[in-house]
Write a structure and sequence with these properties.
Pfam families: Anticodon_1, tRNA-synt_1, tRNA-synt_1_2. The protein has 847 residues and is an alpha+beta fold. The chain is built from 27 helices and 34 strands.
Length: 847
């Protein structure tokens, strides 16, 4: 169910713990005023048609219950979060002529659970500001002029991660421009090495771990800070330069900067000097020098002849004794340098001419020198050449205000903690274009400096919405705390999140930032866990068709498109459109209104369709007119029919008596019992280990088919039939709670029950999850291996239990079986996945 809700855009994570004396979370109960059809009408409706489905929706809240985890030993937080700040909400509000607060309130302000947060409320963003100040105090926040990605449509700055491979905005689709602005950054690179190393502690991050490791890169070098001079005079400007060999820093002869560096183009006091000394295509020695704040060495600035360095660095340290290219530049420009590496007869490299580090091995010097740089606050944190700090400034209104005050006397001053939150002012009209709207509110912008009490101004940029979502998991553990972001004891108890459900698009954005904040909170002794998420379930996307102009890449709404011809065209210009399948998004105008689908099919049908259409990790190209929708509807009807048969059988004059079953019927009852236990075992595994919800539904459909073939005497007299049907309803409940609840109400009113161990007076959502009967665990030596081809069940093959543990033997045995000859012979097999625990093998074929 969580996967389905995720795909409809609801953020959901699960944290589960074994209950102890420390804390017990109150379980949510179904309100007493919610009624079923049965309790309302006093009779069972024999046919499960459209009207019945609508009534089921009418009497039951469409709210997913964590039914599977709700046992006496396990408690669960299944929180709800509204990531309500940011560009999409602001743009939608402007488009509809509403204030973003009013628009957001209309969209999301209804309560789902006690563990709920909304990022645009002051009660939440107060603590986002609190964490920002903590980062500021730790030296991890700074402001500088930087070339930024400018979205000319949304007229705001985009992070590098928000620009696609074609250089277009991830939101508007517009071609991104480059310009210099003074921006706020968070030093995420400080944690690069620690975050890269701790990926090894995340074995359940399948696929994502590799993506994030590639994003971070090889952390072999570091940045070191320099103070700039011109003609021997200090300018007050600093520069951070990258080196791949920090241990060799005493051998530096110069610093390189690229021709498009901010010192040559932005609002720098060195701009005119550097531009006057720059000759395109040549390495240009300048009159600007840089003093190493670690070693106090002074070296000149060289404007490089290159247009780009390795990775994304724009400033690096030239060390001729290590790098032949640096040596050639130094020789051509007449720059002196020292040899700082000596190789001993045994091949060991040690440092010479390196001050207090002389005599150390290179590895020893690397560790000692970088640590000293960190202690002095002048760099030294190992990072890669491809990773940049996190640009968080946004020139928009609808975001968390940056809690900084600018004073001419005191400089940059954080807002005192006791003055938080800095609330957004109420702006009645704005367009979202140009400078920050907060600059148009002087009564809000003008303030007093908290230090000198003189006149000052507030920062008018707001934070990237990813800052709000980088710590929500901690707030979920204590969402109503008004004294601190969260209680450490609660966070330590519940964290890390056991299961995080999200898409691959978050690998190098949300998940990266969330890990950074978690590592920071750990170092601040706010939590005892470094990593926020233990296991990831990376679900695919529901994609829908998009239509955009080939000339501008602008996405069009459906009403702007003429679909009457062979090819879609723009109604006004008749321009042919580019049609693609993309993630449903408001900005791409390709979302599907769920209300229309629910009205037509019912919410349970839509959930089952989404879960059954593909494994969670695969994308779905949205087409509700496929065979899958009628299939899940027929299945619901069969479930309804089974309950109806049992009700009708037990309302007859004959009292159920298992002793009246003949030998053949008893054998049939045993098969039902075996099938029930097998399905319980498999579906439990799918819910807890594999998360193959489509396979779980397939198994439940199979049990439904078995029960549908039961004879009338078996329905009347068999406890096995009654138990299997009740178990089936319980296992259906997490995925289709409405129909399962209604079916259970029908079962609860069955007369002369043979099964007394179910809690018939409680709702299906409050039943314990079924367990395999102990007798069934005395398994035979022969098992039935379920065979899937391209994720679809096609049969079973009998084999010895010991063989079922070996992938190669299982593979060969199935290929030689009648099923393998029929379905696999002559077809190229790309990969086969064996699950010995659940006796299942899935062949993926090359189509």
């Amino acid at each position: 169910m969580q996967t389905a809700w995720q795909r409809f855009g609801v953020c959901s994570s699960c944290l589960k713990r074994q209950l102890n004396d420390f804390i017990k979370w109150q379980k949510g109960l179904i309100p007493g005023w919610i009624r079923s059809i049965y309790s309302e009408t006093g009779k069972w409706e024999g046919n499960y048609g459209l009207e019945t489905r609508k009534k089921v929706e009418k009497w039951w809240l469409p709210r997913m219950k964590e039914q599977f985890c709700k046992t006496s030993e396990t408690d669960v937080i299944n929180p709800m979060g509204w990531d309500a700040f940011g560009l999409p909400a602001e743009n939608a509000a402007i488009e509809h002529g509403l204030h973003p607060a009013n628009w957001t309130q209309r969209m999301v302000f209804f309560s789902f659970s006690l563990q709920e947060i909304t990022t645009c409320l002051p009660e939440y963003y107060k603590w986002t500001q609190y964490l920002f100040i903590k980062l500021f105090e730790a030296g991890l926040v700074y402001q500088k002029e930087a070339m930024v990605n400018w979205d000319p449509v949304d007229q705001t700055v985009l992070a590098n991660e928000q620009v696609d491979e074609d250089g277009c905005s991830w939101r508007s689709g517009a071609k991104v421009e480059q310009k210099y602005l003074r921006q706020w950054f968070i030093k995420t690179t400080v944690y690069a090495k620690a975050m890269l190393d701790s990926l090894s502690d995340l074995p359940e991050w399948y696929g994502i771990k590799e993506m994030q490791a590639n994003w971070i890169g090889d952390c072999v070098g570091c940045y070191l800070d320099f103070m700039l001079k011109v003609n021997g005079k200090e300018t007050g400007e600093k520069l951070a330069a990258y080196t791949y060999t920090p241990e060799a820093i005493y051998g530096a002869s110069h610093l390189y900067v690229l021709p498009d560096h901010r010192l040559l183009h932005a609002n720098s006091s060195l701009k005119e000097v550097l531009q006057s000394e720059f000759i395109p295509g040549k390495d240009c020695l300048t009159s600007v020098t840089a003093v190493n704040l670690l070693t106090n060495q002074e070296v000149p600035i060289v404007i490089s002849a290159k247009s780009a360095f390795e990775g994304y660095i724009d400033t690096k340290i030239g060390i001729p004794s290590i790098n032949p290219e640096d040596a050639a530049v130094a020789q051509n420009l007449g720059l002196s340098f020292s040899e700082i590496i000596e190789t001993l007869p045994d091949g060991l490299e040690t440092l010479v001419n390196s001050g207090e580090f002389t005599g150390m091995t290179r590895q020893e010097a690397l560790k000692a020198l970088t640590q000293q740089a960190k202690n002095k606050g002048v760099g030294g944190d190992l990072t890669s050449d491809k990773l940049r700090d996190w640009l968080i400034s946004r020139q928009r209104y609808w975001g968390t205000p940056i809690p900084i005050i600018h004073c001419q006397t005191c400089g940059t001053v954080p807002v005192p903690y006791e003055d938080l939150p800095v609330k957004l002012p109420n702006i009645t009209t704005f367009t979202g274009k140009g400078a920050s709207p907060l600059e148009t509110v002087p009564e809000w912008m003008n303030c007093s400096c908290p230090r000198c009490k003189g006149t000052a101004k507030r920062e008018t940029d707001t934070m990237d919405t990813f800052v709000d979502s980088s710590w929500y998991y901690l707030r979920y553990t204590d969402p109503h705390n008004s004294d601190r972001p969260f209680n450490k004891a609660l966070a330590d108890y519940w964290m890390p999140v056991d299961l995080y459900i999200g898409g691959k698009e978050h690998a190098v954005m949300h998940l990266y930032y969330a890990r950074f904040l978690s590592h920071f909170c750990y170092d601040q002794k706010m939590t005892k866990h470094k990593e926020p998420f233990y296991k990831l379930l990376v679900q695919g996307l529901i994609k829908s068709q998009t239509y955009k102009l080939t000339t501008t890449s602008q996405y069009l709404k459906r009403e702007e498109i003429d679909l009457t011809g062979i090819e879609p065209v723009h109604i006004k210009t008749k321009e042919k459109l580019q049609v693609t399948w993309e993630k449903m998004s408001k900005s791409k105008h390709n979302g599907i209104d769920p209300e229309e689908l629910v009205e037509q099919y019912g919410i349970d049908t839509m959930r089952l369709y989404i879960l059954f259409a593909a494994p969670p990790e695969q994308d779905i190209l949205w087409d509700a007119k496929t065979d899958a929708v009628p299939g899940v509807r027929r299945w619901q009807s069969r479930l309804w029919s089974l309950v109806t048969k049992l009700i009708e059988a037990r309302t007859s004059s004959t009292v159920p008596n298992p002793q009246l079953l003949n030998k053949k019927e008893k054998a049939e009852a045993k098969k039902i019992w075996e099938q029930k236990n097998l399905v319980v075992s498999e579906v439990t595994s799918y819910f807890t280990k594999d998360y193959l919800f489509n396979a779980a539904i397939s198994r439940l459909m199979g049990l439904t088919n078995v029960l549908s073939q039961a004879s009338q005497p078996l329905i009347l007299h068999s406890a096995e039939f009654e138990d299997a049907l009740a178990t089936l309803c319980i296992m259906v409940a997490p995925m289709a709670p409405h129909i399962a609840s209604e079916l259970w109400k029908g079962l609860a009113h069955v007369q002369n029950k043979l099964c007394t161990y179910h809690k018939w007076d409680d709702d299906v959502l409050h039943q314990s999850w079924p367990k395999v009967d102990p007798e069934y665990l005395q398994q035979p030596d022969i098992i039935e291996m379920s065979v899937l081809i391209n994720n679809k069940a096609c049969g079973k093959v009998s084999m010895p239990r010991q063989v079922a543990q070996n992938a190669e033997e299982v593979h060969e045995l199935i290929l030689q079986s009648e099923l393998g000859i029929k379905h696999l012979q002559g077809r190229p097999i790309k990969k086969a996945f064996l699950s010995p625990r659940t006796a299942l093998i899935n062949f993926l074929l090359q189509e």
